[in-house]
């Protein structure tokens, strides 16, 4: 049974959002929240806020909710986009707003969960979004990266936008190419849409962060990478490539490393990504952060529901 403090009626019209780094345990906590609400007769739905879990065919690689977790709680926006399609945060915003609005209109509690900061902000707010950059522009820049090197392209960005160059390191190829693509299309890269957290939510929202000590988190990341490799991660990537995986789908963390079988590089890059996610977490001024160490998913779920009820 749920905590007496977490009366389901007090959560009516409320969005519960859970953010945290990869491998911290977000999916299991979200499912536990849904189960506790169900035990009190209150419906909920877990809504994904992840840039790669939305692709069909990348379930292992992206760490999407397992078949067991999907049986225990209703999920939305997992595996709904064909892996062959390009996909953007603007497209995601339209989808996720529709899911959240529909749930609330039916008296269902949306539990938004993910580790992609930009996607979480897109889910919860009406943040301004730049128009998409043509795929050819980004493809041309990717070829230039191969031939000219990151330092040359970073120097070009520094000339166009010193502030953006100051934020983006040359080795962060994804952000570097994106910034140059925006410059090339005549868009500003200085206003940083999505880079500064806002609490101007579309609906009443309670935001929670999950955190673990670095050594604990890194150990879980290493174990997860080993598990992905052992349960068919390379085969999943090969199948995605054979079916014509889009440029944006191939940006999935670990996609290239599994192609080459370099698990150590995948672990290093995943730990770096988790570090960036923790930076996002520190931006969330209104988030209540829970330490996961020593607490089960159900204990964390009870604490989140109790806190949500008190604030409602």
Secondary-structure element pattern, one letter each: EHEHHEHEHHHHHEHHHHEH
- Measured as a percent range, the helix fraction is 40-55%
Largest β-sheet summary: 6 strands, parallel
What is the CATH T-level topology of the largest domain? Rossmann fold
Give the class-level CATH name of the largest domain: Alpha Beta
Structural class: alpha/beta
CATH architecture of the largest domain: 3-Layer(aba) Sandwich
The CATH superfamily of the largest domain is P-loop containing nucleotide triphosphate hydrolases
Question: Could you walk me through the main structural features you see in this protein, from its secondary elements to its overall organization?
Answer:
With 312 residues, this protein is of the alpha/beta class. The chain has 2 domains: 8-128 and 200-311, 3-Layer(aba) Sandwich (Rossmann fold); 135-184, Histone, subunit A. It contains 14 helices and 6 strands. The chain has a 6-stranded parallel β-sheet, with helices on both faces. Helix 6 (135-148) crosses helix 9 (173-184) and helix 7 (150-160) crosses helix 9. The protein is globular and about 60 Å long. Residues 1-6 and 191-195 have low confidence and may be disordered.
């Amino acid at each position: 049974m749920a905590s007496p403090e977490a009366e389901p009626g007090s959560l009516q019209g409320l969005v519960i959002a859970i953010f945290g780094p990869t491998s911290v345990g977000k999916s299991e906590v979200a499912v536990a929240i849904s189960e506790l609400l169900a035990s009190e007769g209150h419906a909920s739905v877990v809504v994904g806020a992840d840039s790669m879990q939305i692709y069909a065919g990348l379930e292992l690689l992206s760490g999407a909710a397992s078949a067991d977790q999907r049986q225990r709680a209703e999920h939305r926006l997992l595996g709904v986009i064909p892996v062959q399609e390009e996909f953007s945060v603007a497209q995601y915003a339209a989808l996720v707003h529709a899911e959240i609005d529909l749930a609330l209109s039916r008296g269902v509690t949306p539990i938004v969960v993910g580790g992609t900061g930009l996607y979480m902000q897109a889910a919860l707010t009406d943040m301004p979004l730049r128009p998409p950059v043509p795929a050819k522009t980004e493809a041309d820049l990717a070829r230039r990266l191969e031939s000219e090197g990151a330092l040359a392209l970073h120097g070009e960005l520094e000339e166009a936008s010193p502030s953006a160059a100051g934020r983006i390191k040359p080795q962060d190829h994804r952000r570097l190419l994106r910034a140059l693509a925006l410059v090339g299309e005549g868009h500003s890269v200085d206003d940083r849409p999505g880079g500064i957290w806002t609490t101007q939510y579309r609906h009443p929202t309670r935001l929670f962060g999950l955190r673990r000590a670095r050594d604990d988190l890194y150990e879980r990341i290493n174990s997860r990478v080993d598990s992905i490799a052992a349960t068919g991660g390379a085969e999943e990537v090969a199948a995605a490539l054979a079916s014509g995986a889009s440029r944006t789908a191939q940006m999935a963390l670990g996609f290239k490393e599994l192609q080459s079988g370099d698990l150590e590089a995948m672990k290093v890059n995943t730990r770096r990504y988790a570090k960036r996610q923790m930076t996002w977490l520190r931006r969330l001024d209104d988030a209540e952060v829970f330490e996961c160490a020593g607490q089960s998913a159900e204990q964390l779920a009870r604490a989140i529901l109790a806190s949500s009820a008190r604030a409602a």
